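Hey, I'm writing a tutorial for new members on how sequence and structure tokens pair up, and I'd like a real worked example in the thread rather than a made-up one. If someone can provide the structure for the chain below, I'll link this post from the tutorial.
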Amino acid sequence: HSFCTLLVSMRFSTILKAVVLTTLIFAIVGEEATASRGAPETFDADVAKMLNILINSLYTNRNIFLREIISNASDALDKIRFLYLTNPKQPKNDAGEEPTQDIRIRVDRDKRQFIMQDGGVGMTIDDLRGNLGSLGSSGTQRFLDAFKDNSDSNLIGQFGVGFYSVFLVADKVKVASKHDDSDKQWVWESTGAGTFYVYEDERGNTLGRGTELTLELKKDADEFLEHDKIKETIHRYSEFIHFPIYLQTTKIERVAKKSEAAASEDGEVADAEKKDEEEEFEDVPKTTWELVNENKPIWTRKADEVTEEEYNKFYKALTKDHDDPMFFTHFSTEGEMEFKALLFIPGRAPYNVFDTSVASNNIRLYVRRVFITDEFKDL
């Protein structure tokens, strides 16, 4: 009996040591992971307050996050294009690849990640802290003041705070960025809970120049892992962005299997019977980049530079109507308020033209080529 008791005690002691050792190992790994990110930094008070509004109460239309981050990427591409007019450079990443002048989106369904990359101006470590950790005198306070009187979902695009809309769909956000003036690629990371981290990217220089935004999506945001949903949102809000927007897609292609033919002594293929057999095929996944925003904003051009064929094509793409419009006009106004406009009259009336219960969205407002709203109840 005493022997058995001793044996059990020895086994329990061994298990206890293993548990303690395992706990210590996990604790050390956790400390190293936190140390690699550095100490957490605190958002400005106004930013923290705004994030609380965004995440908990403000927007029911979460699609706008994609509109805002694409607009930010387009601005970054505009800036680098302007800077390179007088001081051109050819940066490359560690793999020797140059950044592209476009916006690229991909998803990782296994990790539930939405990833967007641009070849824009990028950000230094100070830019990441200044632009994402605090907004100083820019938009936050004006946004908060406006929200007191109006909780319209369009407010977010008017005060320079659009980036924070990513927390409508993401539990964690990482922004990796490389600027020409910085030798290193830096990462900004936050869960939107009041603090953020800024640290050197352990992957090295993967961008060459530009920014990569990685969103770890919330459990109820799985729709933004679907290609159809992403394309639909881009078409609605960012169809006319100046730079190409590509979406990574994977298609299955049937290709002939490679046969291992025996070679004769003189190097010629000698397996004649193999050639006569029926050719076998296999399904192979092929990854491609699909251009999403093919339509151009013809209203930005002069009316005498646009052909009737281009007007008709634009109308069909915008309205999904198969017929040409009965009439169209292209005009602009100048003065206290300036705008350019296209007016189309369909070839035939819609079937529900007299149904007053159906919301009308016949007027679409774009600002800097970005769709803002089609709700004009007073007009």
